[in-house]
């Protein structure tokens, strides 16, 4: 592909560009460091846009780049309408957006509406203000229980572990569903709502095409006194119990009033801005976030959580497509992101392995089969890219990067480690800075004479780098490039599929469907070679042996009747 071609004719445009887009998530601090300070930055992203154009993505999604003390990797935002000075300036951001658009790449950014940083000017004003003041009403302050108010106002648990309340020197408590440095906003306050609408317009006016909404299901809380105790519940247990929109702080029905207001802002622009919800909710609740009058799309985490199992995956695919259709949205598919173990490592572990224990062991127990994990990851990616809807990819997965489980305790940055009393290692292993070159002090992430990356890279990253895989026919990078090139050619406006494998075939470990225009996708989840129907082989995730479809492999075919 000629990356100087700015017309990008293969990419969808118009108001529905997002419906079947290939979106590439960038974790800015770990993508590319232009000034050698050890942190990735906005200019680093701009410098690598030719690479992303050649990869063939339709859009990039940037995790937070705002001013932040990094108490939670940038998700503790001190100013929603600026760039962290360590990452650049607003001018750098504007240049990046303009350059992305020149390559035909849309730009999606993270909005973090549930909480601010404790450094945010609003929270600092709240700390200086008296109880009951307008400044404190922007957040959630309560008096404690017990004889002297020494107990939290309720027994609510933080998603990172420990109480969801912290006490101030004046005896009052404030709520934080995540780290204490992330105080929750009071979304019943009109000033909070108005300020976020202002933020959405600020970035939309700068050319941002869409927004990924962090913890979209947590904004509204039941704050009627007395606050309801929930009993001892971990975050995962809380998520499993939420059903009907009445939980005190997760997935309350009232949250959708906010997103209807946001939709009005999105529709002020031509084309309308796009929203996608990060909402860890049950499937029947997900449709509420993805409606056209709401955000318009929602992440499909059921797909991410499903293991290497053909029958379970087919069920999730069917239900996901139905949910999206019910919402009037397109389905979304994701295998890795900044919060989960990279799928090349998940698929390398024995079935049912405790991933927390694996991380705590430094990636040694149980033993991971890295070769099998990568083989499955490549097959899973081709399956994902063949499905109707939007595919969200995480930086580095196109290189086949594994989770860096070997990070030592003194290298960890994620607050989950401390908040969980050292029982969960956290998410740093998927956030290790990318390798761009075979050699060098940071494998091309930073400058030759720059500081070490903020998280250390393992020695084997050099042979997984973009440089090492460039032009190598069987490399994972070239597989992604060819898959995305073909996807742009094959995908039309028809968001349907037809299963050609029945339940019996799925029980044998094979999924086979056809998309419009005779584009077939077959994935063999087993280990034995299975029959391969006649047709022109467009691409396979691994070598074909001439006898059929090998195990743990996906192939794309075009039948003889299809028009090329």
UniProtKB/TrEMBL annotation:
Residues 25-431 form the Glycosyl hydrolase family 13 catalytic domain. It holds the Pfam family Alpha-amylase. Keywords: Hydrolase. One of its GO terms (molecular function) is hydrolase activity. The keyword Hydrolase applies. Belongs to the glycosyl hydrolase 13 family. This is Glycoside hydrolase family 13 protein. It comes from Streptomyces marispadix. The lineage of its organism: Bacteria, Bacillati, Actinomycetota, Actinomycetes, Kitasatosporales.
């Amino acid at each position: 592909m000629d990356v100087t071609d700015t017309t990008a004719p293969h990419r969808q445009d118009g108001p529905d560009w997002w419906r079947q887009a290939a979106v590439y998530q960038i974790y800015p601090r770990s993508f590319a460091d232009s000034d050698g300070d050890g942190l990735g930055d906005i200019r680093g992203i701009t410098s690598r846009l030719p690479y992303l154009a050649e990869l063939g993505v339709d859009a990039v999604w940037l995790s937070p780049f705002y001013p932040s003390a990094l108490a939670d990797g940038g998700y503790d935002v001190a100013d929603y309408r600026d760039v962290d000075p360590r990452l650049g300036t607003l001018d750098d951001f504007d240049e990046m957006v303009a350059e992305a658009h020149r390559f035909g790449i849309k730009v999606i950014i993270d909005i973090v509406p549930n909480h601010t940083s404790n450094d945010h000017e609003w929270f600092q004003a709240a700390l200086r203000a008296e109880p009951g003041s307008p400044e404190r009403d922007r957040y959630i302050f309560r008096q404690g229980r017990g004889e002297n108010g020494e107990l939290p106002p309720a027994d609510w648990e933080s998603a990172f572990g420990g109480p969801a309340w912290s006490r101030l020197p004046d005896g009052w408590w404030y709520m934080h569903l995540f780290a204490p440095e992330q105080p929750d906003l009071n979304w019943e306050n009109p000033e909070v709502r108005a300020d976020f609408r202002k933020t959405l317009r600020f970035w939309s006016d700068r050319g941002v095409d869409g927004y990924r909404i962090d913890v979209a299901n947590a904004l509204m809380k039941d704050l009627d006194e007395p606050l309801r105790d929930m009993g001892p519940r971990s975050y995962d247990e809380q998520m499993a119990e939420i059903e009907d929109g009445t939980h005190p702080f997760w997935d309350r029905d009232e949250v959708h009033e906010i997103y209807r207001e946001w939709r009005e802002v999105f529709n002020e622009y031509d084309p309308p801005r796009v929203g996608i919800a990060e909402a860890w909710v049950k499937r029947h609740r997900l449709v509420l976030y993805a409606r056209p009058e709401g955000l318009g799309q929602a992440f499909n985490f059921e797909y991410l959580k499903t293991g290497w199992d053909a029958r379970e995956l087919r069920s999730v695919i069917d239900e996901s497509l139905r949910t999206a259709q019910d919402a009037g949205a397109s389905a979304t598919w994701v295998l890795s992101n900044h919060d989960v173990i990279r799928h090349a490592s998940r698929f390398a572990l024995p079935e049912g392995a405790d991933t927390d224990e694996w991380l705590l062991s430094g990636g040694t127990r149980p033993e991971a089969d890295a070769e099998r994990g990568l083989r499955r990851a490549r097959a899973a990616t081709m399956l994902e890219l063949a499905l109707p809807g939007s595919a969200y990819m995480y930086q580095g997965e196109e290189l086949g990067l594994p989770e860096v489980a070997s990070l030592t305790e003194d290298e960890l940055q994620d607050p989950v480690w401390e908040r969980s009393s050292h029982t969960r290692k956290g998410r740093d292993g998927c956030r290790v800075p990318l390798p761009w070159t075979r050699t060098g002090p940071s494998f091309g992430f930073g400058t030759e004479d720059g500081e070490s990356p903020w998280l250390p890279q393992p020695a084997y990253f050099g042979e997984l780098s973009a440089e090492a895989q460039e032009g190598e026919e069987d490399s994972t990078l070239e597989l992604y490039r060819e898959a995305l090139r073909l996807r742009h050619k094959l995908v039309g406006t028809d968001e349907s599929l037809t299963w050609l494998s029945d339940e019996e075939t799925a029980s044998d470990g094979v999924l086979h469907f056809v998309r419009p225009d005779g584009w077939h996708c077959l994935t063999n989840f087993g280990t034995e070679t299975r029959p391969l129907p006649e047709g022109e082989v467009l691409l396979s995730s691994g070598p074909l042996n001439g006898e059929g479809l090998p195990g743990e492999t996906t192939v794309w075919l075009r039948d003889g009747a299809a028009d090329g």
